[in-house]
């Protein structure tokens, strides 16, 4: 494949412009493995990648797409043969290294995960970075003692977004029955309940009373929103409860006191899907393919490379629901 299509973000005359282009392999970042990309998925970071001050792209031009699933075209590593089905999330793909919104990607083989049995390439991107992050969050909470036997009170924030919606569906699938979802638009309640939420917290009425500790309400939290919401949640977490925090959709600043930590033993667990070890990637993807497999339930839509930008606009406007995958190679 000499020439191929890729979505390119450029800085031109102090403006950020982006469009579908025909490019050659030399325009791709370095790597020892070429992958024919079947699918990428659309994540919050991809929306930020198109923003002038989005803060995720370090140098232009860049091909966005923070994840991909496809087949190996060729590799200098003995670990991969032509035709192997692979997936890749994180490591700066689509931010510092040309990403998944390209018919061909060139990446270091160490970044790849072999597609686990039980998943198709398409499935891997229906989960995508968001689903992987949801699974990492639940895994972190289970390591802190969350079990189905205890039926603890669980809160999921950003519940109709990518990470939140997959998190609720995995929790529900595993048998957790006390799941509260945060929403902030009327139509989101029905969606969140359909995903498996049993209680709804409409955060439009969020008004901090300024107290460092409030009534204990949640034992475990999957938090994708951050900011003021996280600050409020920390005052309501039960003794020795844990908050797995992955996102900052609602703000990066966190103003809190030490009291939830020193008087209630609350744990704040950082979730970083970008830099996580290869061993953990394989372990989590295997869970997503087997015991935690909710692929049949995940609400998703499929778009073409040409339509990528329309979906990021929906994300920006807060009108996007669930997951969207991008079909990158038309012949697949
Ligand atoms: N740590 C990691 O490795 C990692 C990996 C993936 C994602 N993330 C981060 O996780 C977050 C969620 O990602 P995503 O892909 O799930 O994004 P998404 O699909 O856009 O979902 C964002 C969710 O947050 C809600 N939200 C946005 N702004 C809010 C606000 N000001 N107050 C309350 N809720 C708000 C949205 O509600 P509306 O629909 O009402 O706007 C939506 O439910 C992002 O910050 C993303 O960067 C981190």
CATH architecture tag of the largest domain: Alpha-Beta Complex
Mean pLDDT: 95
Question: Helicity range of the residues?
Answer: 25-40%
Described by strand count, sense and barrel closure, the largest sheet is: 7 strands, mixed
Number of strands: 15
The separation of the N and C termini measures 15 Å
Bound molecules: NADP nicotinamide-adenine-dinucleotide phosphate
Question: What's the alpha carbon Rg, rounded to whole Å?
Answer: 20 Å
Name the CATH superfamily classification of the largest domain.
Medium-chain alcohol dehydrogenases, catalytic domain
* Weakly predicted, low-confidence segments: none
Task: Please tell me the total number of domains.
Answer: 2
Look at the helices and sheets and give the structural class: alpha/beta
CATH classification class of the largest domain? Alpha Beta
Can you put this structure into words, describing what you see?
The longest helix is centred in the middle third of the chain and has 23 residues, at 121-143. Helices cover 25% and strands 27% of the residues. α8 links the parallel β14 (300-304) and β15. α2 packs across α3 and α2 (121-143) crosses α7 (278-289). With 332 residues, it is α/β, with parallel strands linked by helices. Strands 3, 4, 5, 6, 7, 14 and 15 form a seven-stranded mixed beta sheet that branches. A six-stranded parallel beta sheet has the order 10-9-8-11-12-13, sandwiched between helices. The chain has two domains: 3-115 and 299-327, Quinone Oxidoreductase, Chain A, domain 1, CATH 3.90.180.10; 129-270, Rossmann fold. The radius of gyration is 20 Å and the shape is globular. Bound molecules: NADP nicotinamide-adenine-dinucleotide phosphate. NADP nicotinamide-adenine-dinucleotide phosphate binds at residues 43-45, 129-130, 133, 158, 160-164, 184-185, 203, 224-225, 229, 246-250, 271-274, 315, 318, 320.
């Amino acid at each position: 494949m000499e020439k191929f299509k890729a979505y390119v973000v450029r800085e031109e005359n102090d403006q950020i412009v982006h469009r579908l282009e025909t490019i050659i392999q030399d325009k791709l970042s370095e790597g020892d493995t070429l992958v024919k990309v079947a699918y990428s998925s659309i994540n919050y970071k991809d929306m930020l990648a198109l923003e002038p001050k989005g803060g995720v792209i370090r140098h232009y031009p860049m091909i966005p797409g923070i994840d991909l699933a496809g087949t190996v075209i060729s590799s200098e590593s003995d670990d991969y043969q032509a035709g192997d089905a692979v997936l890749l999330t994180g490591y700066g793909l689509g931010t510092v290294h040309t990403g998944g919104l390209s018919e061909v990607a060139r990446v270091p083989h160490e970044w790849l995960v072999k597609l686990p049995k039980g998943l198709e390439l398409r499935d891997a991107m229906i989960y995508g970075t968001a689903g992987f992050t949801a699974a990492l969050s639940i895994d972190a909470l289970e390591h802190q003692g969350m079990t189905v036997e205890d039926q603890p009170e669980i809160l999921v924030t950003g519940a109709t977004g990518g990470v939140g919606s997959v998190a609720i569906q995995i929790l529900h699938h595993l048998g957790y029955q006390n799941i509260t979802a945060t929403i902030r638009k009327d139509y989101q309640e029905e969606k969140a309940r359909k995903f498996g939420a049993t209680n709804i917290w409409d955060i439009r009425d969020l008004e901090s009373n300024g107290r460092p500790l409030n009534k204990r309400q949640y034992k475990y939290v999957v938090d994708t929103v951050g900011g003021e919401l996280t600050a409020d949640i920390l005052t309501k977490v039960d003794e020795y409860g844990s908050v797995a925090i992955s996102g900052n959709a609602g703000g990066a600043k966190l103003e809190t006191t030490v009291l939830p930590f020193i008087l209630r033993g609350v744990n704040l667990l950082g979730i970083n899907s970008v830099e996580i070890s290869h061993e953990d990637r394989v372990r989590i993807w295997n869970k997503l393919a087997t015991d935690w497999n909710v692929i049949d339930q995940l609400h998703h839509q499929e778009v073409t490379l040409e339509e990528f930008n329309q979906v990021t606009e929906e994300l920006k406007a807060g009108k996007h629901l669930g997951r969207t995958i991008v079909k990158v190679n038309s012949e697949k």
